[in-house]
Specification:
With 143 residues, the protein is of the alpha/beta class. Helices cover 46% and strands 15% of the residues. It comes from Chitinophaga rupis.
């Protein structure tokens, strides 16, 4: 299945946003990304866009609404929960407490960001290819 909707990158580090976006384009030039500085901006987009995002890649630690709070808001919103958007954490802040909290919020993955281009590319390829192949409700969503 091709990546049909955008991949959302929610990360307060502009360099990480650009780096992740560039690597996703290396993986598949057709991938479209939307970047957000915090969870609140991403949440506003999610509740107002007619698009069906393909995947959310989110940092944990951000000013304002952090990634865990964003995930909780998605879970609490019937409209967003029914969109079944895969939610994966990509964070430099991978503590046992955060990983446990993330999975309590039913995320679909948690990666500690690799600190090399090749390492991050391997992680992103794994996540994108998994969700391309996986059957999930948003695969049938018509935009």
């Amino acid at each position: 299945m091709p990546v049909s909707g955008p991949i959302l990158i929610v990360d307060n580090d502009l360099e990480d946003q650009e780096f992740i976006s560039a690597i996703l384009k290396e993986i598949d030039p057709a991938i479209n990304t939307h970047c957000f500085h915090d969870g609140q901006d991403a949440l506003v987009y999610l509740v107002t866009t007619p698009q069906q995002p393909f995947l959310i890649l989110c940092d944990v630690k951000m000013e304002g609404m952090n990634g865990l709070e964003l995930r909780a808001h998605i879970n609490d919103n019937d409209f967003l929960r029914k969109k079944s958007i895969p939610f994966v954490f990509f964070s430099d802040y991978a503590t046992q407490e955060n990983v446990t909290k993330a999975y309590d919020l039913t995320v679909q993955g948690f990666f500690e960001k690799a600190n090399t281009h090749d390492g991050l590319k391997a992680q992103l390829e794994l996540a994108v290819n998994y969700w391309k192949a996986c059957l999930h409700p948003n695969r049938y969503f018509i935009t």
